[in-house]
Design brief:
A hairpin with a 5-residue loop joins β9 and β10. The chain folds into two domains: about 150 residues, Phosphorylase Kinase, domain 1, CATH 3.30.200; about 110 residues, Orthogonal Bundle (Transferase(Phosphotransferase), domain 1). The protein is globular and about 55 Å long. The N terminus and C terminus are likely disordered. The protein is an alpha+beta fold. The strands form three sheets. It has a six-stranded antiparallel beta barrel with strand order 1-2-3-4-6-5. A three-stranded antiparallel β-sheet has the order 7-9-10, covered by helices on one side. A two-stranded antiparallel ribbon has the order 8-11. It contains six helices and eleven strands.
């Protein structure tokens, strides 16, 4: 099949089906490989989170098992960067097609989590490495699996699961303060998110708020001051727009002045 549109959601779901076991080989030692004393282990899919054609990645919850079915206690999030099901891309912008886009997304995620290591476990999920994937020899499939990363599973709701009318004034102030604090911290470490929306903000009605999904991130890396200012305003504009949808006012420049200044 030549395009993501050739697949239905059910077909993608069957490939990333609950109960499926997939062999992971780590690109470098990490907390999991040290615990299992092996660079290769299996994961078993236990739940589908975000599955379907036209996505940047296929996201599931997994349990890690070794060759004798020893199970890692904590469930984890696995993100598969699968070109077969990725969104269609402009060949002029992406001469390598969907595979290039998937490679860039995975590279961005890995680089962002490594760069933001001081924030792991608090403002962002813990990052547990990147992997090449394949089916164990005991499973006959005919499908080649893409690269993936593993992340801590956050047992909180996203803002996308919460109705604006369910937020009281204390909730709104907490979300606003924490969101801008986290954004300031990731910018200070040289990462610019560019995909701030309710589904990427986890919150548990306390001070515990986390920002996820760095596939579209950009990085300081010697960029000009003008570029960094534009990236900063893009992130701040996205955050302000999202908060506005939840009735949370930002006490600062109006959206119009920001977009005018950045040339949009």
């Amino acid at each position: 099949m030549s395009s993501a549109e050739s697949f239905s959601v059910s077909q993608v779901g069957e490939i990333y089906n609950v109960g499926q076991r997939i062999k992971f080989t780590a690109s470098e030692p990490n907390a999991i490989t040290k615990r299992f004393q092996s660079m290769t282990f299996d994961v078993r899919i236990t739940k589908q989170i975000a599955i379907g054609p036209g996505r940047h990645s296929q996201v599931v919850i997994v349990r890690v098992v070794d060759a004798v079915s020893k199970v890692l206690d904590e469930p984890l999030v696995a993100k598969f960067y699968d070109p077969r099901f990725c969104q269609q891309v402009d060949s002029a912008e992406w001469p390598g097609g969907r595979r290039q886009l998937c490679d860039v997304m995975k590279t961005n995620e890995s680089k962002a989590y490594r760069t933001l290591e001081p924030l792991q476990g608090s403002e962002i999920p813990n990052f547990l490495g990147e992997y090449t994937c394949s089916h164990p020899d005991t499973v006959a499939t005919g499908f080649d699996y893409p690269d993936a990363i593993l992340l801590e599973l956050i047992n909180l709701h996203t803002l996308a699961d919460i109705r604006p009318q369910d937020l009281n004034m204390t909730d709104r102030v907490t979300i606003k303060n924490r969101a801008y604090t986290i954004l300031s911290k990731i910018h200070h470490l040289g990462v610019y998110h560019h995909d701030i929306r309710p589904a990427n903000v986890f919150w548990n009605r306390s001070n515990d708020l986390k920002l996820i999904d760095y596939g579209l991130a950009t990085f300081k890396d010697g960029r000009t001051t003008e570029t960094i200012e534009e990236w900063t305003m893009l992130d701040e504009g996205q955050l302000m727009s999202m908060l506005d949808d939840y009735g949370i006012e930002y006490e600062g420049p109006s959206p119009a002045s920001w977009f005018h200044k950045s040339g949009w």
